[in-house]
């Protein structure tokens, strides 16, 4: 719900501001208050009447502090929000630079950044106006303090009520106090300015974690890899969409293809399996263990997943490959890369710092690589992880036909002995699965082997027959197709 850059800026600003606030509170402010009290005691000792102008000065000084504090916190929070928004806007445009160029929106993004900079400047100017007003009023009050205390001491000396030493001591104390009052005011202002930044940062940092391990949650133990979706419902809090009372059992080491039109609930099924959300109804079990009762880390460690859009970390190829299994050996890592048809192109990589091969950095989200190269590294990462449950979400969609054909045997080997869920729009990639489950409207409408589903002439048969190049046709074409239409090869 927020810009990544804005969240990053908040996270970076809040800790340093917290440190500043602690310093101002326990060092500057505490020391200054001690000095004021000490000065008052010394003036009382010298001549109690010298406290009169000091007391008269403290009243407007306290009012100025209160006035500044009430305004500094909100102004600082607004300035921090403006800076975070500026960072978020720039990072958003930068990370989507291809879209910006593709749609020729350079001027629009520059204008948006300029507007964000203007709001940041305006918020900064409001802060500076507060400091300026405070400084002017404080200078006036300090002048009155010096004149009041020193003049009062001199008058007492002329009447014989005070000695020259009292006049000298009072003058020295009040000059020092005048200098410190500005420092005190600045420290108080910076303290509440830091609180404003912290408050803005806490809007992101202190968000409650809604998905947590249950008390006493145990690590998941995968013995067979049996997955059960038991009367599963999830509508993202909207009351409709998602999954609706879905029943599905995936037997140990079974390969199941998941098919359906856009919005049918396929991705929701995977998100619930990975426990990115808790189910709104029903339960999800692996080897008889409810996912609500196991730790999230152990669950996700037992699942290897290759997504349609594989995003890599802005680190080296080696770090990305070892991300799911840091203890893997060099030989195991290279073997996985070779299986994914990635080793040869990895050896040719070179980054701007001169690093080559497995030590080359891949750029933000892997931007220095092609889509097919990113996908092959993602495949190698999952091969190396060697988890007992495998989820493929359009795993070969970014590969050209030649590369896809080359790694089909690798995929078959990778799936051997594992429980597999494979989501695909290109039905030819899942035709050889043990079962194909067709989801429509959040429910399973067909379930069986490829040939049986074609023979039924239902939704799967229509999807199969209306594909062009192996991809799903538009929904309206599918709906208009006759129920008994089969692909030419099926008809034969």
UniProtKB/TrEMBL annotation:
Stored InterPro entries: AAA+_ATPase (IPR003593), ABC1_TM_dom (IPR011527), ABC1_TM_sf (IPR036640), ABC_transporter-like_ATP-bd (IPR003439), ABC_transporter-like_CS (IPR017871), P-loop_NTPase (IPR027417), Type_1_exporter (IPR039421)
Keywords: ATP-binding, Membrane, Nucleotide-binding, Transmembrane, Transmembrane helix
Stated name of the protein: Efflux ABC transporter, permease/ATP-binding protein Atu2242
Membrane-crossing segments per the record: 21-44, 50-69, 130-148, 154-177
Subcellular location, principal: membrane
Ranges in a coiled coil: none
PANTHER family noted in UniProt: ATP-BINDING CASSETTE SUB-FAMILY B (PTHR24221), ATP-BINDING_PERMEASE FUSION ABC TRANSPORTER-RELATED (PTHR24221:SF203)
UniProt keyword Glycoprotein present: no
Membrane topology, record value: Multi-pass membrane protein
Function field: Part of an ABC transporter complex. Transmembrane domains (TMD) form a pore in the inner membrane and the ATP-binding domain (NBD) is responsible for energy generation.
Organismal lineage: Bacteria, Pseudomonadati, Pseudomonadota, Alphaproteobacteria, Rhodobacterales
């Amino acid at each position: 719900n927020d810009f990544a850059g804005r969240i990053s800026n908040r996270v970076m600003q809040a800790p340093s501001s917290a440190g500043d606030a602690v310093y101002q509170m326990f060092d500057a402010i505490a020391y200054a208050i001690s000095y004021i009290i000490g000065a008052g005691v010394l003036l009382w000792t010298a001549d109690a009447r010298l406290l009169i102008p000091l007391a008269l000065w403290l009243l407007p000084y306290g009012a100025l502090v209160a006035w500044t504090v009430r305004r500094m916190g909100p102004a600082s929070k607004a300035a921090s929000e403006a800076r975070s928004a500026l960072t978020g806007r720039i990072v958003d445009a930068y990370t989507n630079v291809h879209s910006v160029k593709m749609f020729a929106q350079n001027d629009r993004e520059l204008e948006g950044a300029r507007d964000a900079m203007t709001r940041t400047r305006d918020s900064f100017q409001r802060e500076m106006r507060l400091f300026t007003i405070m400084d002017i009023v404080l200078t006036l009050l300090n002048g009155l303090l010096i004149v009041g205390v020193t003049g009062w001491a001199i008058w007492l000396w002329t009447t014989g009520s005070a000695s020259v030493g009292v006049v000298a001591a009072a003058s020295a104390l009040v000059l020092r106090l005048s200098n410190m009052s500005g420092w005190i005011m600045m420290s108080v202002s910076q303290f509440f300015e830091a609180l404003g930044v912290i408050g803005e940062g806490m809007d992101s940092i202190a968000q409650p974690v809604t998905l947590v391990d249950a008390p006493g949650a145990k690590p998941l133990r995968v013995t067979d890899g049996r997955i059960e979706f038991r009367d599963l419902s999830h509508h993202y809090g909207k009351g409709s969409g998602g999954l609706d009372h879905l029943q599905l059992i995936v037997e140990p080491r079974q390969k199941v293809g998941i098919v359906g039109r856009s919005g049918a609930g396929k991705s929701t099924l995977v998100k619930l399996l990975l426990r990115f959300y808790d189910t709104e109804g029903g339960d999800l079990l692996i080897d008889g263990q409810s996912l609500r009762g196991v730790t999230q880390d152990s669950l996700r460690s037992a699942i290897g997943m290759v997504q349609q859009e594989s995003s890599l970390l802005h680190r080296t190829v080696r770090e990305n490959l070892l991300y799911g299994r840091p203890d893997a050996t060099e030989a195991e890592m290279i073997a996985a890369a070779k299986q994914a048809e990635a080793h040869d192109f990895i050896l040719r990589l070179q980054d701007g710092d001169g690093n080559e091969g497995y030590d080359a950095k891949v750029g933000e989200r892997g931007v220095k690589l092609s889509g097919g190269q990113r996908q092959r590294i993602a495949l190698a990462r999952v091969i190396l992880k060697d988890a007992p449950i495998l989820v493929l979400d359009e795993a070969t969609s970014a590969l050209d036909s030649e590369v896809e054909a080359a790694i089909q045997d690798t995929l078959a080997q990778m799936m051997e002995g594992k429980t597999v869920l494979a989501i695909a729009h290109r039905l030819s990639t899942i035709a050889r699965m043990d079962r194909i489950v067709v989801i429509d409207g959040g429910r399973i409408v067909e379930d069986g082997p490829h040939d049986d589903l074609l023979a039924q002439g239902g939704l799967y048969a229509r999807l199969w027959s209306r594909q062009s190049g192996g991809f799903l046709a538009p929904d309206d074409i599918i709906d208009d197709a006759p129920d008994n239409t089969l692909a030419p090869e099926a008809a034969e």
